[in-house]
């Protein structure tokens, strides 16, 4: 362990880890026990399951702990907002593990954009190829296979990527999103007729790309004792791997699972200056999470794919393409994501000692990008374009429109001297507070006037009858 850090406790004891890392043998079975104690450390790292982030963050923040929180921040907009509010009120540092912000290629793309070298950015295209067996491991058989147990796939897998788009586009603000996607292939209807319920007993296992034997046993025999093999058993050897595949979820047929998260999704973003961005998450790929990026500007374009040691920058003015080397200064052998895991941890510690300016993101920026993820999922589920407000919150304009009386109708009735009671005004997003088509609104207002002009005699008649009834009553 780094000499400038000590570990006063952890949630649960694992003797092997304690021995390897020289950790003191103190632990609590539940985070709530630790939260009840007097403050005993400078910060906490919260890596509970996705649905169990908010409560420990709130509890430890109120105790005065700085917090490093695994992404996503939380699984509802309300919980995300509460986390930010409590951390701010408690005056503690809270950073979400947007680890990709610390990769050299991400910061290089941002630097090139901000330099103006490719002119004004008009579009960003970002693809996350999840990987066919990685998706089967994590999102069909694994912990993130059901929204009810975790959260929806765009949040659990790709809030990283939406955050990157917001980061690269900053200071532009997203004003609307649309999204499409579904769960394909990994369903009971696609199970081969001869397939068994478990891969180790399946007569067609060798023909299946999602064979658990291939993903775990063959990987172990090839020398892989890390991820994903170590996920399915605490003791990584052939006996325990085989036992896990015969008894646990990772050995089940991918077509027999109760998974429900999408296997592919696209999200379209519109920004306040007219620029756009497109994000795609796809399960069925050879590459594993090696992002593919294109940034299109008015004077040039940037091209990068995960694993490249150079970034391609084309200058439209000269027609030349330059190849910029990507220098990784981080000790990649110490962590994943090309050493960015190590850099995230190092930066967080330095920020606690010297100030948070060194952190690549902050709670407010994380909240805003998370709200974009929630908005995109709402757009997918409801097949609608979702408007993003100035504060980052979102609304589907059609949601409440039928329950309100428009301002045009109200004003016309007032002008005609007609008494009326309106349930509410038209939603504030329209027309004055929302960048919508004013010509369309004017046309709507005029058509309402024509309709109301025909309706006025009827309203007057009803009003007079009501007055007569009151007089004679």
UniProtKB/TrEMBL annotation:
One Gene Ontology MF term: nucleic acid binding
Lineage of the species this protein comes from: Eukaryota, Metazoa, Spiralia, Lophotrochozoa, Mollusca
Domain Gfo/Idh/MocA-like oxidoreductase C-terminal: 110-387
InterPro entries in the record: Gfo/Idh/MocA-like_OxRdtase_C, Gfo/Idh/MocA-like_OxRdtase_N, Gfo/Idh/MocA_Oxidoreductases, NAD(P)-bd_dom_sf, RNaseH_sf
SUPFAM superfamilies linked to this entry: Glyceraldehyde-3-phosphate dehydrogenase-like, C-terminal domain (SSF55347), NAD(P)-binding Rossmann-fold domains (SSF51735)
Domain Gfo/Idh/MocA-like oxidoreductase N-terminal: 31-96
Protein name as it appears in the record: 4,5-dihydroxyphthalate dehydrogenase
PANTHER family found in the cross-reference section: BILIVERDIN REDUCTASE A, BINDING ROSSMANN FOLD OXIDOREDUCTASE, PUTATIVE (AFU_ORTHOLOGUE AFUA_4G00560)-RELATED
